[in-house]
Amino acid sequence: MAAAMDADQLKALQAAVAKLSDDPSLIYLPELAFFKDLLLSWGAKIPDVSSKPAKPAQESTEAPKVQEEKAKEAEEEEAEEEPEEPEEEDPERLPEDPEPYPDKAPPGEIELKDEEMDAQAAAKQAAAEALEDGKLEEALQKYTEAIKIGNASAMMYAKRAELLLKLRRPNACIADCTAAIGVNPDSGKAYRIRGKAHRKLGHWEEAHKDLSTGQKLDFDDETVDVQKFVAEKFKKISERQTRQRIREEARAEKRKREEIKRRKEAAQKAYEEAKRAESAPAGGGFPGGFPGGFPGGFPGGMPGGMPGGMPGGGMPGMPAGIDPSMFAGLLNDPELMQAFANPRLQQAMQEMMSNPANIAKYQNDPEVMSVFQKMMSKMGGGMGGMGGMGGMG
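Given the sequence above, the corresponding structure tokens read:
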């Protein structure tokens, strides 16, 4: 029987048997169906498809290592987090006051009758007198009567807001200040009072913004101290947020560099393995089956018109059959390397490279075809021995 095969064919067969011994599941590849049928016809026992003695052991040793690295990264990030500073006790802090808030004026501009204007003026006067006498609730009631008549000015809302803050109702105060600013966007008094209300609630950023705006519009000496206090609080918060942002950006950049390094190392390793496979005896290696193991290919050639076979070397995680000399363009393309890490795209590339007839199977899948066409362009327009590629544009 040996006399019917030359030395190269025997070496290729020996390499094939060695490969199947390492990974029996290769016998289930479609292109090896003829070989499996031959073995079965001889009464051979075919191993179960899950029989892969080498890989599980490798995965079992690599998985804990990956988990350990992730745990270490998580610990480093946690250690880098800036601890929350205990909030200083603030004797002026007020609790949130719930709705309902005092009624506002009817929407829109209305024409007041003489008696309505007189009633509004009387209510405003009564509110001012009650306020002078320290009757805050009565003053609030009178201001509300005046506002509900209609055409309330920004000053009317601002005065009632100031009164609401004295009554320890900061949220209601903020609502009136916002209404005042809606009537007059240049109301410095409304901005200042709203800033003070935010200060009472510990809303330091909002307080800083409103007080600064109010002082620019209409400077008030009595607001200087509270503005300075709020500015110090805001400065601490801003500095802490800046430090946190810088740390997050640094961590993101570190993760990006590590990922690029990992991909380059994986690509370099795959390239070296492909070069070793290329220098091995004819037929050696053949990841993914027997692509070009025997000189001249298997009888009948590879499926889809590949009578010459394809190079025996391969790149783990990339389609089988790529000439190692063409790897240089692929190694420096992050998009292709990321695509080859996708199991679905990897499988599709392997199917199309091993059998060009499978291109029709994926011609309506834009993601697969985009990667395939880009890979072909990186390899100089395609694989010379691939039949069935004429329709690729």
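The longest helix spans residues 224-279. Try to locate this feature in the token string yourself.
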